Amino acid sequence: MKLKITTLLLLSCSYFVSAQEKKWTLRECVEYAIENNISIKQSELDLENAEIDKSDAFGSFLPSVNGSASHSWNVGLNQDITTGVLRTATTQFSSGRVSLGVDIFKGLQIQNRYRRAKLNILANQYQMDDMKDDISLAVANAYLQVLFSRENLAVQKAQYAVTEQDLKKTKELVESGVLPKGDLLEIEATAATQEQQIINAENTLRISKISLAQLLLLDDYENFDVADEDYMIPKSTIIGVTPDEIYQKALTFRGDVKLSQANIEIAEMDLKIAKGALMPSLTGFYGYDTRVSHQDRSVATGQFTETQIGTVQTTGDAVVSQSPVFGVAGPLPFVDQLWMNDGQSFGLSLNVPIFNGFAARNNVKRGQVNVKRNELLLKQTKLDLENTINQVWNDAQSAFKAYEASDKTLEARKLAYQYAKERFDVGLMNSFDFSQAQARLDNAQAELIRAKYDYIFKLKVLEYYFGIPVEEL
Q1: How far apart are CA 421 and CA 431, in angstroms?
Q2: Which of 280, 301, 258, 286 is nearest to 100 (CA)?
Q3: CA torsion 203→206→207→213, rounded to 10°?
Q4: Residue 238 carries which DSSP code?
Q5: Are 117 and 54 in contact (CB under 8 A)?
Q6: Structural domains in the chain?
Q7: DSSP-H helix ranges across 358-430
Q8: To which H or E segment does residue 347 belong?
């Protein structure tokens, strides 16, 4: 028993540790966000509703079949079927009906509603795809922000480690009387500033992780972390592609463009449906009825009664009338009455719209306006897409140039810092000027990191509009 408990504890601990040590890749973050995002789940429900609407539209092609049944009690004054005398009694009756109706022609509204339902499914799918792309882009941005913050923190710590060594050397030189105490104070101030920068960088990293975790709808912020990967500047040929080529490619797959095109087709189908209401409609119907009585009935007994109604004048013979004798019997069997008392009705019904207060014609006009509105929305969507791609292309070009400039600046700052350090070590530069050289190096390193991830993100945005998945970083 103790062995089982120990095993369970070890398994639980190993699971907890593995959960804590899990580090998310960009692909995992994107897939998890798409799977758990509330807006996407709502869009999936909209897609399910569209599928149900399609089923409704298909059902309009099928005939409608309805059945009804009733049973009634009549209590009160009724005529006796044998004596003809009115008396208080209770009678019962049962009835049933089955009806069938089918739309033979309805101005092609049924067919057009079915086509509209299928178009609506496509529109919802395009909308959901567009939403997934936007969420993927947002996750990539947040993910790169975490990488930037983490790399910036690593640089800050590395810089502080160098400063600690300089501080140790400066203390020795001050104690030996080679350097004045002011130089030591200046180095200590630089170290304190870097400690503050490390704290700020740690806070920035934590906030960026929390932002990404919230985007993924995760609650365990403290144990959330991304994979330890060093992302370098990716090699991409997208920079050499013109904005117009990217725009033409984007038109073939962008969800927002396809959604706008689908909305035009839906509006055109709505217009056809509205026009169909101006046309005659032909409906076929069929009905089957039957009824059952539960009261006693009058039946002939086979006997007759004779009544003299006159005499023959010539012979004096009596003229006799015979009347059958009736008795009382119970109701016929239930099933027998169903077939004896049944009846059928069938036919066609033609409905011709003549005047309905301009409602049908106004619906046609509304449909025409809606078609024009959606055509304008498509033009606006394409225009916005073209403007966005041009802006993204310019941003990517500028970001790459900024990265190259930052890289050159950093190399120059490294050489300047190395030269200043050599002069400082031999006492040819005071601590203030040396601190300034180090600060300029720190700023150049931070700017290079910022420019690097800014370019990576803007490059991914440009590739995103070219159809390259965001998670392929």
Answers
A1: 10
A2: 286
A3: 180
A4: G
A5: yes
A6: 23-62+106-279+355-465 (1.20.1600.10), 298-329 (no CATH)
A7: 359-425
A8: strand 343-351
Question: Residue 473 CA to chain centroid, in angstroms?
Answer: 26
- Band (pLDDT 50/70/90 cuts) for residue 83 is low
For residue 20, pLDDT over 60 is answered with: no
First and final CA of the chain: distance in angstroms? 50
| Residue appearing with tokens 């190993």 | 14
Would you state the pLDDT for residue 4?
Answer: 42
Give tens-digit pLDDT for 121-145. Answer: 999 999 999 999 889 989 988 998 9
Q: What does the alpha-carbon distance between residue 441 and residue 420 come to, in Å, rounded to a whole number? A: 11
Higher pLDDT, 172 or 12: 172
Contacts made by residues 239-246, CB under 8 angstroms, sequence distance 24+: 239/396, 239/397, 239/400, 239/459, 239/462, 241/466, 243/386, 243/389, 243/390, 243/393, 246/389, 246/393, 246/462, 246/465, 246/466
Q: What is the pLDDT of residue 123?
A: 94
Say what the pLDDT of residue 328 is: 61
Residues 440-452 have a mean pLDDT of 88
Check residue 366 and give its pLDDT. 94
Q: List Cα–Cα distances, 169 to 155, 228, 250, 368, 426, in angstroms.
A: 22, 34, 60, 83, 11
What are the structure tokens assigned to 316, written together?
A: 């004096």
Q: Render the burial of 400-425: b for 16+ CB within 10 Å, e for the rest.
A: bebbeebbebbeebeeebeebbeebe
Pairing of strands 86-105, 281-293: antiparallel
Helix axes 359-425, 243-250, angle to 10 degrees: 140
* DSSP string for 138-167: HHHHHHHHHHHHHHHHHHHHHHHHHHHHHH
**Where residue 81 falls among pLDDT bands split at 50, 70, 90?**
low
Q: What element of type H or E holds 452?
A: helix 431-465
pLDDT of residue 73: 82
pLDDT of residue 12: 39
* Alpha-carbon Rg for the chain in angstroms: 45
- Kindly tell me if the per-residue pLDDT of 112 is higher than 50: yes
Give the integer Cα–Cα distance in Å for 440 and 433: 11
